[in-house]
Write a structure and sequence with these properties.
Helix content: 55-70%
Number of helices: 12
Order of helices and strands: HHHHHHHHHHHH
Strand content: under 5%
Largest sheet: none
Radius of gyration: 18 Å
Structural class: mainly alpha
Length: about 250
């Protein structure tokens, strides 16, 4: 039986959900405590945030120049979170910006239910543009080429050290980030198309380090600061502290 790329994405989402639920149960069954889980998840959130900013503001828009540490921090977050090859994300996001909230948008809320978005049942077509700037980043090219090998190697190493930690790290990172991103996509992107009320937009901003501020971002995609006069972008502070090059 031949599975399409979309089918594989849907299977991955369901599998990661099952592993996350099982992982939480097993974590406490194996002696894990609430405090241990909180510490693991706080550390994990840093890498989830690095993944979100790296895959979007860096590798899709090149809105800031990362430091060497920032570059490897973001690429590590990309690997740990398990979204998939960063070039795939960059191509899909380019299509999204070119055709925002239209029939050709891979994940327009006008043509997809929330369940479809969450399962990754995106619209696929051949009207895409290869992001040429991506190929200037040799580290990103390496991660893209060896993505799944690096993902499984990381998880196998963590599992050998402590299985219960492995089960609540990458799977929950993926599920959290993917679900929040699906909520963002479901509420539109362009000015005038925002379905979400302001308080939800700001809540999503805090949960995603600013990635939920889509209206501001779509108004000027080249800026790495998504703040507006009535909304705060915590991602800017994260970039300024950990990721951006000071030279």
């Amino acid at each position: 039986m031949h599975l399409s790329y979309i089918d594989k994405v849907s299977i991955k989402v369901i599998l990661m959900t099952v592993i996350s639920i099982f992982g939480l149960v097993y974590f406490f069954y194996d002696g894990g405590t609430i405090i241990q889980l909180i510490v693991i998840r706080i550390i994990a959130v840093f890498f989830t945030s690095a993944h979100a900013i790296g895959s979007h503001r860096w590798l899709c828009h090149y809105s800031f120049k990362p430091s060497t540490f920032g570059k490897y921090f973001m690429l590590t977050g990309l690997v740990i979170t398990g979204y998939g090859r960063p070039l795939h994300l960059a191509v899909a996001h380019g299509m999204h910006h070119k055709h925002s909230d239209t029939l050709l948008d891979p994940h327009s809320p006008k043509y997809h239910s929330f369940l479809n978005l969450w399962l990754g049942r995106y619209t696929m077509h051949d009207q895409y543009v290869i992001p040429t700037k991506f190929f200037r980043e040799k580290e990103a090219i390496f991660v893209n080429k060896h993505y799944w090998g690096l993902f499984f190697l990381f998880n196998i190493i963590v599992a050998f050290i402590d299985l219960k930690t492995a089960l609540v790290l990458s799977p929950i990172n993926f599920l959290y980030s993917w679900t929040i991103n699906s909520v963002i996509n479901y509420h539109g992107h362009k000015q005038g198309d925002i379905i979400a009320p302001n308080n939800l937009n700001q809540t999503l901003a805090y949960l995603t380090l600013g990635e939920g501020l889509q209206e501001t971002h779509h108004a000027n995609p080249s800026l790495y600061d998504f703040s507006s006069k009535d909304r705060i972008d915590p991602g800017k502070k994260f970039i300024d502290l950990f990721l951006i090059s000071k030279t």
